[in-house]
Amino acid sequence: MWPVFSYFQARNLDYATEATYATAIGLLVDFVGARAADYVDVTRRTAMFNAFAHAVLDGTVRDGDDPTGLWWHPRTGARAKKLIALACEVSDWLATHHGADPINPFMRRASPSEQIAFWRRWNTEKATSLLGHTKATSQVADRARKARVVAQPGGSLPTRERPPYFPEGHIEALLFEGFLVPGDQKDKRPWVRWNLRDILITLLLHFGGLRMSEPMHLWVDDIFVDPSDQECARVLVHHPRDGIYDAVDRLTGKRSRTTRAAYLRSMYNRVPLTEMSGHRHAGWKNSLLNNRDRNAFEVFWFPRSMGVLFLKLFRLYITHVRSVTAKHPYLFVTQDGQPMGTLTFTKNHGRAVRRIGLDVAKHLGTTPHGHRHAYGQRLKDAGLNEKDIQLAMHHVSSLSQAVYTEPEADEVAARMRSAEHVMNSTTLTLTLPPLLGN
């Protein structure tokens, strides 16, 4: 298991993703434990994996009995495919870094249909990536000709549905009722009455479109006054490890440019939050860094007035809440003065949602990620084009934000009804059978 922990550290995965990987690995370990005697010969490794893949998809219960003792029930094709793929991915990494034999290697020549599917996916990714000009067919030609020995069973159903987003009509209540501090609801001092820290984070998610983990990586001096609007905040989110920091020598006053990881190590003997564990951890996804000079991206407030509110609350937070003696540069801190991780915010956000009478559920859009969905939908409703939305949401590929702006079925039906009214009624006529009337 230690190599698996090393894999998690190397990938900087968030806890939800790690849990899914752990599920896949655990299933494989359990299956090997139950069926090892049937596959003692090492040459039957791929046969064992094939049996595992089908067991994940179809379950192991037959006619009310299960001789394996696993008692797995069938899974959906999409879920089974995901778990099987993750088990393969970890196996490939162990083979590369620890000399293990892969359980499902790329040793079979891909069929023409598999090669066509590969190139279709690759060309789509290249066409929609802002870094597509760096991708060359020669780099992946060999990979296109190979396929895994065991083809994955199952698959995803062709569904298209816009993900749920946090209901816009409840955002004001969430901010100023949900984040009230219990026992201090009537205090006239804003920094006592409200949890300003969590309000600031929620503003970044809902009106800045950030992922939940990204505000945790902000440092105090990542917040500026916007040069074009002295009342609005300008926020730069840096890569937690490779982001640039202009350090000032306390003795000479000279500035020197370094990375955030190097500065944390030299000044505070710390590592980035992506390398922390437990409730201090915060993940990082592949975001488009539109400020190349600093390895950072800028928050685009929408509406811009929320940047004004953010700056006002930020000043109160810095003056009255965040400790000036904190031994780290992070902006958002817990009560003990340590950097805040995503788990703490998730719990606080859930309590705030329930406090205003809503249920906490992903399918309702009331989890923290629902705010990002709301941001993307708001941009789409305002008429921004796909490229603008891609840049505002810091997606490397335009495909990434398609799910955020997917129209709902009732919207499509309404537009079709409107279009039907403007059609010439003589364009399409039907003569109905007598039994159906006119």
Strand order of the largest sheet: 3-4-7
| Span between termini | 72 Å
CATH architecture of the largest domain: Orthogonal Bundle
Counting helices, strands and paired strands, the structural category is mainly alpha
CATH fold descriptor of the largest domain: hpI Integrase, Chain A
CATH homologous superfamily label of the largest domain: Intergrase catalytic core
The count of helical stretches stands at 15
Under CATH at level 1, the class of the largest domain stands as Mainly Alpha
Into which percentage range does the β-strand content fall? Answer: 5-15%
Biggest sheet overview = 3 strands, antiparallel
How many domains, in number, for the residues? Answer: 2
Radius of gyration: 26 Å
**pLDDT average, as an integer?**
84
Helix share, percent? 40-55%
Q: Regions with pLDDT < 50 over 5+ consecutive residues?
A: none
Which assembly state applies to the chains in this document?
Answer: single chain
Number of strands: 7
Shape annotation: globular
Give the H and E element order.
Answer: HHHHEHHEHHHEEEEHEHHHHH
